[in-house]
Amino acid sequence: MARTTPSRPADIVAVFPELAPLARQTVRLHPRSGMPTAYDSSVGGPLLWPADEPWPVCTEEHCSWVLPTSLGGVRRSRQLRAVAGRRPQQPGAGTLTPEERELLAAIEQTHEWTDEPNALLPVAQLYMRDVPGLRGPEGTDVLQVLWCPLDHTEHFMPKARLVWRSSQAVEVLLASPPEPVHVDHMGNYVPEPCALHPEVVTEYPAPYELDDELRERIWDWGSRVKAVAEPDHPYPDEHEAYYQYELSVAPGWKVGGWEPWSFSDPRRIPCRTCKVPMVPLLTIASGEWDAGNHSWIPVEDQVSLAEPHGKRPSNDPRVRIPRENMQIYICPVSFDHPHAENMQ
Fold first, then answer.
1. Residue 267 C-beta-side C-alpha neighbours within 13 Å
2. Residue 183 has what DSSP assignment?
3. d(Cα 176, Cα 326) in Å, to the nearest integer?
4. What is the greatest pairwise CA distance in the chain?
5. How many whole angstroms separate alpha carbon 38 and alpha carbon 129?
6. β-strands 194-195, 42-43 pairing
7. What per-residue confidence (pLDDT) applies to 79?
């Protein structure tokens, strides 16, 4: 099923024409639980990987103060919680039985660090035919993103690897890719298999990308508009964030577009090779919506949310980034230059 982002609740360019030149197209990926194959675009699905090409591993230093767990342990834990969540619940009772809690504790305590290299885990596979505007090195038609599913000491987040390839050059698939020995303790970096429903939308810079004068005028306007629309809002100080949450940067997994600056001030990320400012390639998100940005919920999902027991797919991949989003940047000069990562 396609996903359709509703029209924005206000025409921000009509109010502030100076934003028009700053518009960017982004592709919201809308990952939803599915069974993608190696021949599909996906999040957390199998990769089109040649049988004769070595699978990448991580040998870098990991944050060691939190014990890891195993990939199998994360999967067993998720299955157990899913089964428990489908049972009728008694008022005041937890979803897990004492036996299930004991089993979960045992799963979490039976894994220890080893020194062997950690196989990378598939994060996303994007066929250019499915993602408007996505371009790679000449002769390639698919982007594959893998990462080591542990926090790394440099940036306290996973370490990603980008692979651009030609699907036509892959003759024999790798049947059983290696799996990581270690994943993060909570399984936050283990994406569940999801099909994608790409959609092109227009977005505008986050507030702190704007000059001070324009930003203040937008904040004042947002406060006035929301005060009229929501006079009984319990936190009226949040009204000035109207532009930030509802009219600027699209939430969720996406390709291209603007950066979702929030926890730190905007900054340009220079290419380590040529010093040219890098551009956003992929945003990996902890969810597609939250309490503050419901207007971005696709029309098709709003129908489900309105049902008493409807599916609530704001984070089907089950990925959780400590600061909500991880962005991967590439150099606009050369695909051979190393990519960069930033957490927001």
1. 10
2. B
3. 28
4. 64
5. 14
6. antiparallel
7. 87
Q: Which two three-digit tokens encode residue 325? A: 């989003």
> How do residues 27-39 score in pLDDT, each as one tens digit?
999 999 999 999 9
**pLDDT of the residue at 182:** 92
Q: Report the pLDDT value the prediction gives residue 236, as an integer from 0 to 100.
A: 64
286 pLDDT exceeds 60?
yes
DSSP state of 246: I
195 HSE (CA, 13 A, CB side):
11
- Tell me how far CA of residue 176 lies from CA of 46, 47, 74, 79, 219, in angstroms: 10, 11, 19, 22, 53
Q: Which of 164, 215, 182, 292 is nearest to 18 (CA)?
A: 215
Q: What is the pLDDT of residues 196-210, one digit of tens each?
A: 999 999 999 999 999
Which two three-digit tokens encode residue 272? 């380590």
Q: In what order do the strands lie in the sheet with 24-28?
A: 199-203, 24-28, 254-256, 279-285, 325-330, 340-343
Q: Residue 79 to residues 100, 104, 242, 343: CA-CA distances in angstroms?
A: 11, 11, 38, 29
Distance of CA 231 to CAs 219, 223, 235, Å? 17, 11, 10
Beta-bridge mates of residue 1: none
Checking if the pLDDT of 46 tops 70, the result is: yes
